[in-house]
């Protein structure tokens, strides 16, 4: 308290000046409408800037929560999109059937390899989230891989950048389909094999999933044709596909569950029962 008193005594001239200046400034603003409006506008500008800065900080702090909400919303939209009857035409069962249902669950990639021959990913979802082996995995841009194994809280994924991976894919414009594989070279390029020579293809054409398996719905994006060549027998094309996904920087993904897979597999494995 004594220090405060000493400060006031030492600076009494300056403090008196500030007091009188503030009083005079207040009277000037109150008695002149022009000065009053300018002061109010300046105050609003200053307070608005402060509130905007505070709001930006709050938005940054809650950014992860907002991302999770957006991912969940995208998840719901994908469930609607890939459960539409017209997205299931020419699948592995009769196209008149529209009862296949897919469930999409958001997940985050916590580990990702892309420079090995047999690359894998690790997700933060597992058995407690109803994730099982052979579920498909995609991102907002396209196909990622297939669930290989699960624990209580985590799941491993066989990446499409894995030399053991085999996924059915097709030309979007003609429905000619083949096997999507990886030759172990570029993390941006995969190969679509067994495409018949009669298929009309050109550079830039889009490749999508074919729907001819119980894992992925039809028409999930894969990439575009970078180049192509005939195999040794000159009967089939090997197409080099530039992926829509950047497999070197994955974070948010979606796990796909075909809710009818058990019934479909039972029917395919026991066709005469």
Walkthrough of the structure:
The chain has two domains: 2-60, no CATH class; 65-269, Thrombin, subunit H (Beta Barrel), CATH 2.40.10.340. A hairpin with a 7-residue loop joins strand 7 (177-181) and strand 8. It has helices at residues 2-10, 12-31, 33-61, 63-82, 261-269, and strands spanning 102-112, 118-123, 136-138, 143-150, 155-162, 167-171, 177-181, 189-196, 206-209, 221-230, 236-243, 252-258. The model is unreliable at 43-48 and 86-98 (pLDDT under 50). The termini are far apart. The chain is of the alpha+beta class. The strands form two sheets. The protein has a six-stranded antiparallel β-barrel.
Keywords:
single chain, 273 residues, alpha+beta, Thrombin, subunit H, 2 domains, six-stranded antiparallel barrel, six-stranded antiparallel beta barrel, 5 helices, elongated
Topology at a glance:
Blueprint: H1 2-10, H2 12-31, H3 33-61, H4 63-82, E1 102-112, E2 118-123, E3 136-138, E4 143-150, E5 155-162, E6 167-171, E7 177-181, E8 189-196, E9 206-209, E10 221-230, E11 236-243, E12 252-258, H5 261-269
Antiparallel strand pairs: 1-2, 1-12, 2-5, 3-4, 3-12, 4-5, 6-7, 6-9, 7-8, 8-11, 9-10, 10-11
**Average pLDDT:** 78
Main β-sheet description: 6 strands, antiparallel, barrel
Overall geometric form? elongated
Computed Rg: 31 Å
The main sheet orders its strands as 1-2-5-4-3-12
Structural domain tally: 2
Residue share in helix: 25-40%
Element string (H = helix, E = strand): HHHHEEEEEEEEEEEEH
Number of H/I helices: 5
Q: What structural class do you assign from the helix and strand content?
A: alpha+beta
Strand content: 25-35%
Which residues form runs of ≥5 with pLDDT under 50?
Answer: 43-48, 86-98
CA-CA gap between termini: 95 Å
Determine and state the CATH class of the largest domain.
Answer: Mainly Beta
- The CATH superfamily of the largest domain is Rod shape-determining protein MreC, domain 1
CATH topology (fold) name of the largest domain: Thrombin, subunit H
The beta-strand count equals 12
Provide the CATH architecture of the largest domain. Beta Barrel
